[in-house]
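Hi everyone, sorry if this is the wrong subforum. Our group has a chain we'd like a structural model of before ordering constructs, and none of us has done structure prediction before. Sequence below.
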Amino acid sequence: MNSPLATPALLAIAEQAGLDILTLAENLDRDALLRSRLTRREVERQLGIVCAALADLESKLGHAMPEIDWSAWTRLDPALRSPGGSARDDALWFAVDSLTPALLLWLRVHRASRPELFAMRC
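Answer:
Right subforum, don't worry. Here is the predicted structure as C-alpha cells:
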C-alpha cells in the first residue's frame, strides 16, 4: 500500500483487532480460551488480522517502533495456521496474554509521541 492513508489505516486496523482480542479473551484463562471453540476461532481470526496489518507495516515502521516484537508477530501467523497441538495452543495463548497487550501499549505510546503516524490525511 502506497497511499498516505495506508499506514494510519493499518495501525488503526491492528489496534482495533487487538482491542477485540482482549475483549473476547477478557476473564478467560488459558484452558477456558482453548476449550471455547467459538471464542477461540474468533480470537484466531482477529490475530490473523493483526498479523496481516503488521506484516504490511514492518518495512515502514520497524525502525520507528522497535519496541514492537515484529518477528514474533511474523512467526505467529504460520504458527496459528499449523495443525492443532500444543505448539499452536502455546502460540495462541502467548499472543493473547503477551503479544497483544504489549502491542496495544506501544501503539498508545507511539500515538502520543508520534501522532503523525496515526493521522489520516489525504
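For your construct planning: The chain has a mean pLDDT of 94. The helical segments are 6-25, 30-35, 37-61, 70-81, 86-113.
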